[in-house]
Amino acid sequence: MLKVAALPSDSPKRPALHLLKFPTELPGFREMIGEGKVVCVTGASGFIASWLVKLLLQRGYTVHATVRSLDDPKKTQHLLDFDGAKERLSLFEASLLEEGSFDSAVKGCHCVFHTASPIMFPVSGQQAQLLDPAVKGTLNVLKSAAKVPSLKRVVLTSSISAVLYGVKPPEFGAVVDETWFSDPETCEQKELWYPLSKTLAENAAVEFAKNNGLELVVINPGFVIGPILQPTLNITSEGFIRLIETGKEIFPDGIYRLVDVRDVANAHILAFENPQANGRYLLVADIYHSSDIMENINQNYPSLDYSERYKDSKYVGTPPFFVSRTKAESLGVKFTTVEDSIKDTVESLKEKKFLSF
Protein backbone atom coordinates (compact mmCIF):
# COMPACT_ATOMS: atom_id res chain seq x y z
CA MET A 1 0.00 0.00 0.00
CA LEU A 2 1.27 3.44 -0.88
CA LYS A 3 0.63 5.82 1.96
CA VAL A 4 1.61 9.47 1.86
CA ALA A 5 2.15 11.08 5.22
CA ALA A 6 1.81 14.53 6.64
CA LEU A 7 5.15 15.98 7.58
CA PRO A 8 5.99 15.24 11.24
CA SER A 9 7.96 17.61 13.43
CA ASP A 10 11.03 15.48 13.79
CA SER A 11 10.82 13.08 10.94
CA PRO A 12 -27.85 6.54 34.18
CA LYS A 13 -27.76 4.67 30.75
CA ARG A 14 -24.45 4.61 29.16
CA PRO A 15 -24.39 5.03 25.39
CA ALA A 16 -23.88 1.87 23.37
CA LEU A 17 -20.71 3.40 21.93
CA HIS A 18 -18.89 2.49 25.16
CA LEU A 19 -19.20 -1.15 24.14
CA LEU A 20 -16.82 -0.68 21.24
CA LYS A 21 -13.18 -1.56 21.62
CA PHE A 22 -11.69 1.78 20.68
CA PRO A 23 -10.52 4.04 23.55
CA THR A 24 -12.99 6.59 24.88
CA GLU A 25 -10.36 8.29 27.03
CA LEU A 26 -7.08 9.85 25.98
CA PRO A 27 -3.84 9.60 27.95
CA GLY A 28 -3.79 12.04 30.85
CA PHE A 29 -7.51 12.70 30.84
CA ARG A 30 -8.13 10.86 34.10
CA GLU A 31 -6.62 13.83 35.92
CA MET A 32 -9.35 16.27 36.95
CA ILE A 33 -7.38 19.32 35.86
CA GLY A 34 -10.52 21.27 34.98
CA GLU A 35 -12.09 21.05 38.42
CA GLY A 36 -13.61 24.39 39.39
CA LYS A 37 -13.38 25.83 35.87
CA VAL A 38 -16.39 26.61 33.70
CA VAL A 39 -16.23 26.48 29.90
CA CYS A 40 -18.74 26.86 27.08
CA VAL A 41 -18.99 24.68 23.96
CA THR A 42 -21.12 26.00 21.11
CA GLY A 43 -22.79 23.62 18.67
CA ALA A 44 -22.34 20.90 21.27
CA SER A 45 -24.30 18.22 19.44
CA GLY A 46 -21.84 18.14 16.54
CA PHE A 47 -19.21 15.53 15.70
CA ILE A 48 -16.18 17.36 17.10
CA ALA A 49 -18.10 19.19 19.82
CA SER A 50 -19.63 16.01 21.26
CA TRP A 51 -16.15 14.60 21.81
CA LEU A 52 -15.04 17.94 23.20
CA VAL A 53 -17.86 17.92 25.77
CA LYS A 54 -17.10 14.31 26.70
CA LEU A 55 -13.38 14.95 27.23
CA LEU A 56 -13.97 18.20 29.12
CA LEU A 57 -16.28 16.38 31.52
CA GLN A 58 -13.67 13.61 31.93
CA ARG A 59 -11.16 16.31 32.75
CA GLY A 60 -13.36 17.76 35.51
CA TYR A 61 -14.65 20.89 33.81
CA THR A 62 -18.13 22.28 34.29
CA VAL A 63 -19.53 22.62 30.77
CA HIS A 64 -22.12 25.00 29.37
CA ALA A 65 -23.18 23.45 26.06
CA THR A 66 -25.28 25.22 23.46
CA VAL A 67 -27.63 23.52 21.02
CA ARG A 68 -30.15 24.88 18.54
CA SER A 69 -33.10 23.21 20.28
CA LEU A 70 -33.44 21.80 23.77
CA ASP A 71 -36.51 19.88 22.61
CA ASP A 72 -34.63 17.63 20.18
CA PRO A 73 -33.32 14.50 21.96
CA LYS A 74 -31.11 13.72 18.94
CA LYS A 75 -29.18 16.87 19.82
CA THR A 76 -29.13 16.49 23.59
CA GLN A 77 -29.57 12.96 24.95
CA HIS A 78 -26.11 11.63 24.10
CA LEU A 79 -24.60 14.65 25.85
CA LEU A 80 -26.71 14.06 28.96
CA ASP A 81 -25.56 10.42 29.02
CA PHE A 82 -21.86 11.31 29.38
CA ASP A 83 -20.11 10.53 32.66
CA GLY A 84 -20.18 13.67 34.81
CA ALA A 85 -23.00 15.27 32.83
CA LYS A 86 -25.53 15.07 35.66
CA GLU A 87 -23.25 17.04 37.95
CA ARG A 88 -21.39 19.36 35.59
CA LEU A 89 -23.23 19.80 32.27
CA SER A 90 -25.80 22.50 31.56
CA LEU A 91 -27.53 22.83 28.19
CA PHE A 92 -28.48 26.17 26.65
CA GLU A 93 -30.53 26.96 23.58
CA ALA A 94 -28.83 29.47 21.29
CA SER A 95 -29.04 30.67 17.70
CA LEU A 96 -25.98 31.73 15.71
CA LEU A 97 -27.85 34.54 13.97
CA GLU A 98 -29.39 36.04 17.11
CA GLU A 99 -27.13 38.59 18.81
CA GLY A 100 -27.08 38.09 22.57
CA SER A 101 -28.29 34.52 22.19
CA PHE A 102 -25.09 33.18 23.78
CA ASP A 103 -24.98 35.62 26.73
CA SER A 104 -26.44 33.17 29.25
CA ALA A 105 -24.27 30.27 28.09
CA VAL A 106 -20.95 32.13 28.37
CA LYS A 107 -21.73 33.86 31.67
CA GLY A 108 -19.13 32.94 34.29
CA CYS A 109 -17.01 30.93 31.83
CA HIS A 110 -13.22 30.86 31.63
CA CYS A 111 -13.13 29.77 27.98
CA VAL A 112 -15.46 29.48 25.01
CA PHE A 113 -14.92 26.73 22.44
CA HIS A 114 -16.75 27.93 19.35
CA THR A 115 -17.34 24.92 17.13
CA ALA A 116 -20.78 25.77 15.74
CA SER A 117 -20.72 26.46 12.00
CA PRO A 118 -22.66 24.93 9.12
CA ILE A 119 -21.04 22.50 6.72
CA MET A 120 -22.98 21.28 3.70
CA PHE A 121 -22.47 20.13 0.12
CA PRO A 122 -23.83 21.16 -2.30
CA VAL A 123 -24.93 24.70 -1.43
CA SER A 124 -27.87 26.41 -3.13
CA GLY A 125 -27.99 29.65 -1.15
CA GLN A 126 -24.47 30.19 0.11
CA GLN A 127 -25.09 33.53 1.83
CA ALA A 128 -27.94 32.29 4.03
CA GLN A 129 -26.84 28.67 4.40
CA LEU A 130 -23.11 29.09 5.00
CA LEU A 131 -21.70 32.60 5.05
CA ASP A 132 -24.09 34.37 7.44
CA PRO A 133 -24.14 31.60 10.07
CA ALA A 134 -20.35 31.24 9.89
CA VAL A 135 -19.40 34.92 10.02
CA LYS A 136 -22.28 36.54 11.88
CA GLY A 137 -22.54 33.53 14.16
CA THR A 138 -18.87 33.72 15.08
CA LEU A 139 -19.12 37.44 15.78
CA ASN A 140 -22.25 36.95 17.89
CA VAL A 141 -20.44 34.38 20.04
CA LEU A 142 -17.41 36.65 20.40
CA LYS A 143 -19.59 39.63 21.31
CA SER A 144 -21.12 37.58 24.11
CA ALA A 145 -17.67 36.40 25.21
CA ALA A 146 -16.32 39.95 25.33
CA LYS A 147 -18.90 40.84 28.00
CA VAL A 148 -17.55 38.25 30.47
CA PRO A 149 -14.76 39.49 32.80
CA SER A 150 -13.79 35.94 33.83
CA LEU A 151 -13.31 34.75 30.26
CA LYS A 152 -9.64 34.17 29.47
CA ARG A 153 -9.64 32.68 25.99
CA VAL A 154 -11.70 31.72 22.95
CA VAL A 155 -10.77 28.62 20.95
CA LEU A 156 -12.23 28.69 17.44
CA THR A 157 -12.80 25.63 15.26
CA SER A 158 -11.74 26.64 11.77
CA SER A 159 -10.61 24.29 8.99
CA ILE A 160 -7.76 23.36 6.69
CA SER A 161 -10.08 24.91 4.10
CA ALA A 162 -9.12 28.31 5.50
CA VAL A 163 -5.48 27.46 4.72
CA LEU A 164 -5.18 25.78 1.32
CA TYR A 165 -6.93 28.09 -1.15
CA GLY A 166 -4.61 31.03 -1.66
CA VAL A 167 -4.14 33.12 -4.79
CA LYS A 168 -1.65 30.47 -5.94
CA PRO A 169 -2.04 26.80 -4.97
CA PRO A 170 0.81 25.18 -3.02
CA GLU A 171 3.69 24.22 -5.27
CA PHE A 172 4.62 20.59 -5.69
CA GLY A 173 6.48 19.38 -2.61
CA ALA A 174 5.65 22.46 -0.53
CA VAL A 175 5.16 22.22 3.22
CA VAL A 176 1.97 24.00 4.24
CA ASP A 177 2.00 25.45 7.74
CA GLU A 178 0.15 27.97 9.90
CA THR A 179 1.41 30.92 7.84
CA TRP A 180 -0.70 29.89 4.83
CA PHE A 181 -4.11 31.49 4.33
CA SER A 182 -6.97 31.01 1.90
CA ASP A 183 -7.88 34.05 -0.19
CA PRO A 184 -11.57 35.06 -0.02
CA GLU A 185 -11.61 36.41 -3.58
CA THR A 186 -10.11 33.20 -4.94
CA CYS A 187 -12.65 31.12 -3.02
CA GLU A 188 -15.51 33.23 -4.35
CA GLN A 189 -14.28 33.09 -7.94
CA LYS A 190 -14.03 29.30 -7.76
CA GLU A 191 -17.35 29.03 -5.86
CA LEU A 192 -15.64 27.31 -2.95
CA TRP A 193 -18.35 28.30 -0.51
CA TYR A 194 -17.37 26.23 2.50
CA PRO A 195 -13.69 27.33 2.38
CA LEU A 196 -14.94 30.89 1.92
CA SER A 197 -17.19 30.63 4.98
CA LYS A 198 -14.37 29.30 7.17
CA THR A 199 -11.90 31.87 5.84
CA LEU A 200 -14.22 34.83 6.40
CA ALA A 201 -15.23 33.58 9.86
CA GLU A 202 -11.62 33.10 10.93
CA ASN A 203 -10.61 36.52 9.60
CA ALA A 204 -13.55 38.18 11.37
CA ALA A 205 -12.72 36.41 14.63
CA VAL A 206 -9.06 37.47 14.52
CA GLU A 207 -10.02 41.09 13.87
CA PHE A 208 -12.67 41.17 16.61
CA ALA A 209 -10.39 39.52 19.17
CA LYS A 210 -7.60 41.99 18.42
CA ASN A 211 -9.92 44.98 18.81
CA ASN A 212 -11.64 43.73 21.95
CA GLY A 213 -8.81 42.29 24.03
CA LEU A 214 -9.76 38.63 23.67
CA GLU A 215 -7.19 35.84 23.48
CA LEU A 216 -8.02 33.78 20.40
CA VAL A 217 -6.56 30.41 19.42
CA VAL A 218 -7.63 28.81 16.13
CA ILE A 219 -7.75 25.08 15.35
CA ASN A 220 -7.58 24.13 11.64
CA PRO A 221 -8.31 20.41 11.24
CA GLY A 222 -8.24 18.46 8.02
CA PHE A 223 -10.85 15.85 7.05
CA VAL A 224 -12.06 14.59 10.42
CA ILE A 225 -12.81 10.90 10.91
CA GLY A 226 -13.15 8.66 13.94
CA PRO A 227 -15.91 7.22 16.11
CA ILE A 228 -19.13 9.20 16.36
CA LEU A 229 -20.92 9.91 19.63
CA GLN A 230 -23.99 11.70 18.26
CA PRO A 231 -26.91 9.60 16.93
CA THR A 232 -26.99 11.33 13.55
CA LEU A 233 -24.48 11.35 10.69
CA ASN A 234 -22.19 14.33 10.27
CA ILE A 235 -21.02 15.37 6.81
CA THR A 236 -17.54 13.80 6.93
CA SER A 237 -18.85 10.47 8.24
CA GLU A 238 -21.52 10.55 5.54
CA GLY A 239 -18.83 11.12 2.92
CA PHE A 240 -16.77 8.29 4.38
CA ILE A 241 -19.74 5.93 4.08
CA ARG A 242 -20.35 7.00 0.49
CA LEU A 243 -16.72 6.34 -0.36
CA ILE A 244 -16.90 2.86 1.17
CA GLU A 245 -20.22 1.85 -0.36
CA THR A 246 -20.00 3.41 -3.82
CA GLY A 247 -16.44 4.57 -4.36
CA LYS A 248 -17.71 8.12 -4.96
CA GLU A 249 -14.99 10.62 -4.13
CA ILE A 250 -15.49 13.71 -2.01
CA PHE A 251 -12.41 15.39 -3.44
CA PRO A 252 -11.65 15.26 -7.19
CA ASP A 253 -8.05 14.19 -6.63
CA GLY A 254 -9.07 11.46 -4.17
CA ILE A 255 -6.63 12.78 -1.57
CA TYR A 256 -7.74 13.03 2.06
CA ARG A 257 -5.89 15.02 4.71
CA LEU A 258 -7.05 12.97 7.66
CA VAL A 259 -7.18 13.56 11.40
CA ASP A 260 -8.95 11.76 14.24
CA VAL A 261 -11.86 13.52 15.94
CA ARG A 262 -10.47 12.64 19.38
CA ASP A 263 -7.20 14.38 18.55
CA VAL A 264 -9.10 17.44 17.32
CA ALA A 265 -11.11 17.63 20.55
CA ASN A 266 -7.95 17.13 22.59
CA ALA A 267 -6.19 19.92 20.69
CA HIS A 268 -8.99 22.33 21.57
CA ILE A 269 -8.54 21.58 25.26
CA LEU A 270 -4.75 21.88 25.07
CA ALA A 271 -5.20 25.24 23.31
CA PHE A 272 -7.01 26.50 26.41
CA GLU A 273 -4.90 24.83 29.07
CA ASN A 274 -1.52 25.86 27.66
CA PRO A 275 -0.92 29.55 28.44
CA GLN A 276 1.62 29.74 25.59
CA ALA A 277 -0.88 28.54 22.97
CA ASN A 278 -1.30 31.17 20.29
CA GLY A 279 -2.37 31.74 16.71
CA ARG A 280 -3.38 28.77 14.57
CA TYR A 281 -2.77 25.02 14.78
CA LEU A 282 -3.06 22.80 11.71
CA LEU A 283 -4.24 19.26 12.44
CA VAL A 284 -3.50 16.65 9.78
CA ALA A 285 -2.23 13.27 10.94
CA ASP A 286 -1.55 11.75 7.51
CA ILE A 287 -2.45 12.16 3.86
CA TYR A 288 -4.14 9.18 2.22
CA HIS A 289 -5.48 8.52 -1.24
CA SER A 290 -8.92 6.89 -1.33
CA SER A 291 -7.40 3.65 -2.63
CA ASP A 292 -5.19 3.54 0.49
CA ILE A 293 -8.26 4.00 2.69
CA MET A 294 -9.98 1.13 0.91
CA GLU A 295 -6.91 -1.08 1.12
CA ASN A 296 -6.78 -0.45 4.86
CA ILE A 297 -10.45 -1.41 5.18
CA ASN A 298 -9.85 -4.49 3.05
CA GLN A 299 -7.11 -5.64 5.42
CA ASN A 300 -9.51 -5.44 8.39
CA TYR A 301 -12.55 -6.78 6.52
CA PRO A 302 -11.17 -9.07 3.77
CA SER A 303 -14.57 -10.59 3.04
CA LEU A 304 -15.59 -7.30 1.42
CA ASP A 305 -12.89 -7.74 -1.24
CA TYR A 306 -12.56 -3.99 -1.66
CA SER A 307 -9.07 -4.33 -3.08
CA GLU A 308 -10.53 -5.66 -6.33
CA ARG A 309 -13.11 -2.91 -6.58
CA TYR A 310 -10.55 -0.15 -6.17
CA LYS A 311 -7.49 -1.69 -7.81
CA ASP A 312 -7.76 0.62 -10.83
CA SER A 313 -7.78 3.77 -8.70
CA LYS A 314 -4.37 3.21 -7.14
CA TYR A 315 -2.55 6.44 -6.47
CA VAL A 316 1.03 6.45 -7.67
CA GLY A 317 3.47 9.21 -7.02
CA THR A 318 4.14 11.81 -4.37
CA PRO A 319 1.41 13.94 -2.76
CA PRO A 320 1.28 17.43 -4.24
CA PHE A 321 2.24 18.99 -0.90
CA PHE A 322 2.63 18.20 2.77
CA VAL A 323 1.05 19.64 5.93
CA SER A 324 3.32 20.44 8.85
CA ARG A 325 2.59 18.88 12.25
CA THR A 326 5.33 20.80 14.06
CA LYS A 327 3.23 23.43 15.82
CA ALA A 328 0.44 21.00 16.76
CA GLU A 329 2.95 18.59 18.28
CA SER A 330 4.54 21.46 20.20
CA LEU A 331 1.13 22.00 21.80
CA GLY A 332 1.16 18.39 23.00
CA VAL A 333 -1.02 16.79 20.34
CA LYS A 334 -0.19 13.10 19.89
CA PHE A 335 -1.77 12.01 16.64
CA THR A 336 -3.74 8.78 16.41
CA THR A 337 -2.55 6.69 13.48
CA VAL A 338 -4.83 6.86 10.47
CA GLU A 339 -5.00 3.06 10.43
CA ASP A 340 -6.52 3.10 13.92
CA SER A 341 -8.81 6.01 13.03
CA ILE A 342 -10.17 4.24 9.96
CA LYS A 343 -10.85 1.03 11.89
CA ASP A 344 -12.53 2.91 14.75
CA THR A 345 -14.60 4.91 12.27
CA VAL A 346 -15.89 1.77 10.56
CA GLU A 347 -16.60 -0.01 13.86
CA SER A 348 -18.49 3.02 15.16
CA LEU A 349 -20.57 3.35 11.99
CA LYS A 350 -21.37 -0.36 12.15
CA GLU A 351 -22.36 -0.12 15.82
CA LYS A 352 -24.64 2.83 15.00
CA LYS A 353 -26.05 0.77 12.09
CA PHE A 354 -24.99 3.30 9.45
CA LEU A 355 -22.91 0.51 7.89
CA SER A 356 -24.09 -3.08 7.67
CA PHE A 357 -21.52 -5.76 6.95
UniProtKB/TrEMBL annotation:
Keywords: Flavonoid biosynthesis, NADP, Oxidoreductase
Role, per record: Bifunctional enzyme involved in flavonoid metabolism.
Molecular-function annotations in GO: dihydroflavanol 4-reductase activity; flavanone 4-reductase activity
Family annotation (PANTHER family): NAD DEPENDENT EPIMERASE/DEHYDRATASE, NAD(P)-BINDING ROSSMANN-FOLD SUPERFAMILY PROTEIN
Family: Belongs to the NAD(P)-dependent epimerase/dehydratase family. Dihydroflavonol-4-reductase subfamily.
InterPro entries, per the entry: Epimerase_deHydtase (IPR001509), NAD(P)-bd_dom_sf (IPR036291), NAD(P)_dehydrat-like (IPR050425)
Residue ranges of every copy of the NAD-dependent epimerase/dehydratase domain listed in the record: 39-278
Enzyme nomenclature, EC number: 1.1.1.219, 1.1.1.234
Pfam families for the chain: Epimerase (PF01370)
Organism: Lactuca virosa
Catalytic reaction annotation: a (2R,3S,4S)-leucoanthocyanidin + NADP(+) = a (2R,3R)-dihydroflavonol + NADPH + H(+); (2S)-flavan-4-ol + NADP(+) = (2S)-flavanone + NADPH + H(+)
Designated name of the protein: Dihydroflavonol 4-reductase
Entry annotated with the keyword ATP-binding: no
Biological processes per GO annotation: flavonoid biosynthetic process
Transport listed as a keyword: no
Pathway given in the UniProt record: Pigment biosynthesis; anthocyanin biosynthesis
Coiled-coil segments on the chain, per record: none
